[in-house]
Amino acid sequence: MSAPEDRRSVDRYFDEDVGYWSDIYEDHGLDAQIYRRRRNRVVRRIEELNLPAQTATLEVGCGAGSLAISLAKRGLDVTATDSSGQMLLQATEAAADHGAAITFLRADTQLLPFEDSSFDLVVAIGVIPWVALPEIAIREMGRVLRPSGHVVLTSDNLGRMNVVLDPRKTPAFGAFRKAIGRRLRAAGLARPAPEVSAAMFRRHRVIAWLLDAGLEISSSETIGFGPLTLFDRHVLSGTASIRLDEALQRLADRGTKPIAGAGAHQLVVARKGD
C-alpha cells in the first residue's frame, strides 16, 4: 500500500470513529485515564517551557481538538491541522463552544503547508503511530520550527509492558505470528488483517528521527501501563488495572528501571538549535 493510500485509509478510520476520540477523555476506564494523563503531561511540559503569550504554536493531528483548545486558553496562538475532515469539523465545533480562537486547516502531516521557520512550538500527540512515513513527518515538524523552538510529541512504545508480557503480542514472536496469520487468512481460517492500525516504535528509533531532523532532546518519559493481558485476555478487573497503572506510573516517574521505559506512550520534548 502506497503512502497516499495509507493516508486515505487512516482518514476513513478516524472519520468513522470520530465519536470515540471525542468522548475518550470523559470515560472512566483505563484507556481514558491513560489518554488524560498523556494530555495533561503534554500540557505540563509545555507550561514548563515558559512560553510568552501569543507564541506561534502548531498542533499537528489535532483530532477532536481537546489539546488545541487547552493551549489556546493558555494564551498561545494556535494553528491546528488534521487530515481527517470529520475530526476537523468536530474540533472546530468544540473550539467554538469553548470560545477558543484557533485556526484549523486540513493538511497532510508529511507535507505541511507552511513556510520554513513558521512556529515556535510544534505539538504532535498520538500522530506518529498513524503516518506512513513518521521520519518524514518529524522532519516536516523540524522544518516549520524556528531556531530555539520546541517540538513536543508522543509515539506508541513497542517496549510497552502489556505488549512485551503477552505471548500473543510480544515483538519476540512477531515474525512467527505474521507468517501464521498469512497462512490462516489464505486458508480462510482467520479474519482479514485490519486496513489500518497504530504502529509502535522503540524509543531509540524515534529519538534518531528527531536528531536527524536537527532537534536536540530535552526530556523523555513513558506514560500509561496496561491493561495486562495473557493471550489477549484481560488478567485484572477494570478497577485493579487502574490501580496497577497508577502504581507503575509512580515508579516510572521516579526513574525505576525497567518500568521507566515500559509505558504505553513515549513523550519527548526536543529543541531546535539556534
Could you explain how this protein is built, in words?
This protein has 274 residues and is of the alpha/beta class. Helices cover 42% and strands 20% of the residues. The chain has helices at 3-16, 18-23, 30-48, 66-73, 85-98, 134-144, 161-164, 174-186, 203-212, 238-253, and strands at residues 56-60, 77-82, 102-106, 119-124, 145-156, 215-223, 229-230, 233-234, 265-272. The strands form two sheets. The protein has a seven-stranded mixed sheet, with helices on both faces. It is globular. The N and C termini lie far apart (39 Å).
- Please tally the helical runs, counting DSSP H or I stretches of 4 or more residues: 10
Mean pLDDT over the full residue set: 89
User: What structural class do you assign from the helix and strand content?
Assistant: alpha/beta
Let me know the largest β-sheet.
Answer: 7 strands, mixed
Number of strands: 9
- How are the strands of the largest sheet arranged? 3-2-1-4-5-9-6
Low-confidence region ranges = 1-5
**H and E order:** HHHEHEHEEHEHHHEEEHE
The radius of gyration is 19 Å
Write the layout of secondary structure elements.
Elements: H1 3-16, H2 18-23, H3 30-48, E1 56-60, H4 66-73, E2 77-82, H5 85-98, E3 102-106, E4 119-124, H6 134-144, E5 145-156, H7 161-164, H8 174-186, H9 203-212, E6 215-223, E7 229-230, E8 233-234, H10 238-253, E9 265-272
Parallel strand pairs: 1-2, 1-4, 2-3, 4-5
Antiparallel strand pairs: 5-9, 6-9, 7-8
Helix pairs in contact: 6-9
Key features of this structure:
274 residues, two-stranded antiparallel ribbon, 10 helices, disordered N terminus
